[in-house]
Amino acid sequence: MQIFQSTLFKKYYSPGCFTLNRTFAFFCAIFICIGCKNPVDEKSADTEYRKWHTITLNFEGPATSETAAENPFLNYRLNVTFSKGNRSLVIPGYYAADGHAGETGASSGHIWQVKFVPDETGEWDYSASFRNGAGISTSEDPNAGEPVAFDGQTGSFIVLPTDKEGRDFRAHGRLQYVGQRYLRFGESGQYFLKGGADSPENFLAYADFDNTYASDTSKVLIKTYEAHARDWKEGDVIWKNGKGKGIIGALNYLAGQKMNVVYFLTMNIGGDGKDVWPYLTHQDFERFDCSKLDQWEKVFTHADKLGIMLHFVTQETENERLLDHGDVGPLRKLYYRELIARFAHHLAVTWNLGEENGPAPFTPNGQNDAQRKAMATYFDRHDPYRNFTVVHTHASPKAREPIVDALYGFEALDGLSLQIGNKTTIHEETLKYLKRSADSGKIWVLTQDEIGKWHTGAVPDDVDPARDTLRQEVLWGNLMAGGAGVEWYFGYQYAHNDLNAEDWRTRENLWALTAVALDFFQEYLPFPEMSNMNELVSSEKAYCFGKKDEIFAIYLRKGDNTKINLEQNQEKFEIKWFDPQHGGPLKDGKQLFLEGTGWQPINKLNDEQDWVALVRVIDS
Question: Which residues contact 430 (CB under 8 A, 6 or more apart)?
C-alpha cells in the first residue's frame, strides 16, 4: 500500500526507535495523512505536485547496502511507468540507501527511489516494476529476473501548474533539441544561448562531498571554494550541519554574473584530475556511493533554481576505453543508467559523450566511430526525457575532421561541444559545421566549449583585462555564425587554471562581456529566425547576422568600416549602435537611416572601439 512509502510514516515508524505492528502503523499513518494530496513524495506527505517540478517516490525494498554480497546496483532493477491518457514514460530508479543518504551519510537501507518530472498538468498514474536477478539492472528484457517486494505497486497523483518565475528553470520547462540551431524551453518557448564556466573540469572534486579523494596523492586538487562561501545565502541548501556553502556560493556567484551553464566531469579516473567518480572507490565500477551522489543532486537542484544548465561530461580522452574497452557493455551501461536514473530529470541537461573523444596523435587508442555512435544511441533510447546529447571534439582540424565527418546525419547526436585550438578560425569553423550538418538532414547545435591553446585558454583578468580576442573571435565569432554560445576554459599555464580554479571572480570581466553579448541577442534579435549573412557586408573582418529585408546585426571592430548590400530592397531602415564591451542602451549616431538599393555605407558611431550596428526596417 502506498501509505507505507510516505515520509510521515517513516518519521513515526523507525526500527531504530521503536516498533509498531503494521495494523497499528496503518491506522496511525491514515490519521496523520488525512487531507494529503499524495503520500509518496519524499519531501513531505502533503506536497503539492507541479508541472516541471521533480517528484521523488520512495519504495521500500529489501534491506541491503552498497557493499552487500547481493549487489543492489547490479541485481535489482526498478523501472516506474508514469502515464497520462495515451502517454507513458518509463523512468529508471536507483538504490538510495536510507533515502536521505546525502544528509545521513548512510551506505545501507531499504529505499529505492525514482525521480519524475511531469510535463503536463492533471492526473498521472504510476506502476512500479521491481525485479531481482543476476545483472538485471542493465537488461533490456522487461521480464528478466523475478518480481520482488513492491513490484506491481500502483498509485496516482494530481499535477498543478508551475508556480515559479524568473530564471528558475521550472518556470520555463525542459530545455530540448527541436531540430534547430538552438535549444528551446518546453514551457516558455524561449530559445537558449549559453554562457558560463568550462573550468574547473573537476568542479565536483569538492571536499564537502562524501568520500571524495584524489587517487593520485602526488596531485591533490580537492576544492573548498572558500572564496565563494560568502556568496552562499541564508536559506540555500546545505547538508550535514553546514556543508556545501562553498560550492553553492560558487553557483550563486555564476548566476549573479548572468551566466547559465557549468561544465563538469562525472568520471576522471585515470584522467587529469583523478578525483571525480560516482563509485565507492576509483577501482570498483559496479558499486555507487549513495551519499555522494545524493549530495551532487542537491547541488544540481540548486543550479536548476538559479537557471544554470548542467553540462555532464561523462569521461575524458585518457579514460574513454576504461569501461568495457570503450564499448557500451555491462559496466558502461551500469554507469549510464545510474546517471540517467539520478540526474536526467533536471530540466537543462547536456550529455557529453566524452572530452576530446576519439583517436588523436596523443591518444591513438581512443574510441572508434561505432563506439561513439553506440554511446549516443544508449542515451537516445534510455533517457526518457531525451536530453541534449553532444560529443566534445579535438582541438586540431586534423584530429577533429575524421571524427566529425562520420557523425553527420546521425539521429542520436544533437550537436558538437567544440574545442578549437586556433581562436581566429572559430567563426568560419562554426559556419562550416552548421552548413554540413544542415545538408546532412540534421542540423546541429554548436557551442564553443574549449579554446586553445591548451595551456592558455581564457587567462585571468589581471593578465588580459580587455579580452579583445576572446570577445571578437570566440564569443561574437560563435554567436554571429549561428552558434549557440560559449563556455570559458581556463587553460593550465596560469593561476586558477582548469584543474585548480576555485574562484570564478578571477574571470569577472569575461563573465561581464559574455552577459553583454547574450543580453543583446535575447533583447534585440529574433535570433532563431536569423542566419549568418557575411556576404552582405563589404568588410572581410565584419560579421553580419540577419533576417533578410527585416533586421541585421553587424559587428565592426575598432577601425573597421563597411557597406551593406540592401540589394533591391525598397524599405527604409533605422541604424542604432550597441557597445559590445560595456553594453547599455542602444545609441544614435550621425547616420540615423539607410535607404536605397545596392551597397550602402554604414558610418560608424566612432572608430575608438568595437561597435555593433543594429539595422532594422522601419514599419510603414
Answer: 418, 446, 448, 477, 478, 481, 482, 483
